[in-house]
Amino acid sequence: MQKIQRLFPLLVGGVVAVGTVLAVASLAWSGNATASPVPATAAPVAAGLYLAAPQLGTGASGGASSPVSPAPPESPQTPGSPTGTGNGNGTVSVNLGGSLGKPSESITIIIGLTLLAVAPSLLILLTSFTRIIIVLSLTRQALGLQNVPPNQLLAGLALFLSLFIMSPVISQVNTQAVQPYLAGKITAEQAYTDAQAPLKTWMLKQTQADDLALFAKSGTKLTSPAALPMAAIVPAFALSEMRAAFIIGFVIFVPFLVIDLVVSSTLMSLGMMMLPPSLVSLPFKLLLFVLVDGWALVVQSLLASFH
What pTM was computed for the model? Predict the structure, then answer.
């Protein structure tokens, strides 16, 4: 009997607690079904009620304490919103440059890596690098030298000469397209269009009309070359650059060819047919090239060939 009397307050407290929870749940269910939708902050408050384990009283009455006590309300949280940082809608926004605004650092890094990956193609097809490297290579062959100067030196010289020639165009592209885009004043599409304008103008000055007509659409008159897309201007520009480079190379070859003919005829007249003419003509070629300051003349001709 004593054990039953001790367990009786626990049973009463448990029944009261279960009844309270059922009453709260029924009220919430009926409110959602009949009344207006409950705000998002009501759910966490209702869910914050907890049951306190009934405790035996220590006084003379031996009664139990209050079986149910509401927990302090937690901060309201919108269902579905992330627990970390983010905006109020639970979404993460990334500015891809389609609208006005500064591009994010990740997008800037991706664009930079993409430009570095295609930099060799852009350097060859959009700048003066092609004409310069071809002329320098033909000059080395006209001298009769195979590996002097080395390819790395010729490529480095061609690179810096290209940067010197293209510096006004690069400055215009940076001022009109790159800086406004990084500042968030123009979109990515506008930056691409603005960057094309100075580059296209410079390429059209170096391109022959016949090469442009070759890549123009059939049936269209070449009234406005600037209206042509870059897909037609780039190959026409490359063909014109190779043509100009071979013309300059032919002019450079002529004096060295005369030296080879003179040396060959002299050796034949002396009966030295077993002696290679190139071995005898090489010192004379080098002497002539040094006396006239050949590399400076070649570079000056290259710089003057660009309009």
Answer: 0.63
Helices (H), 178-293: 179-182, 188-206, 209-215, 230-270, 277-291
Q: Supply the DSSP symbol for 306.
A: -
- Biggest CA–CA distance in the chain, Å, is 144
Coil/strand/helix, residue 50: strand
Contact 96, 191 (CB under 8 A): no
68 pLDDT band, cuts 50/70/90, is: very low
Gap between the Cα atoms of 183 and 176, Å rounded: 12
* Domain limits, the chain: 2-57, 105-305
247 touches 131 (CB < 8 A): no
Cα–Cα distance between 13 and 69 in angstroms, integer? 12
The lowest-confidence range among 45-49, 92-96, 132-136, 284-288 is 45-49
Instruction: Quote the CA–CA distance of 267 and 273 in Å, as a whole number.
Output: 7
Strand partners, 50: 69
Taking the C-alpha atoms of residue 205 and residue 251, their distance in angstroms, rounded to an integer, is: 22
Nearest 5 degrees, angle CA 139-CA 162-CA 247?
40
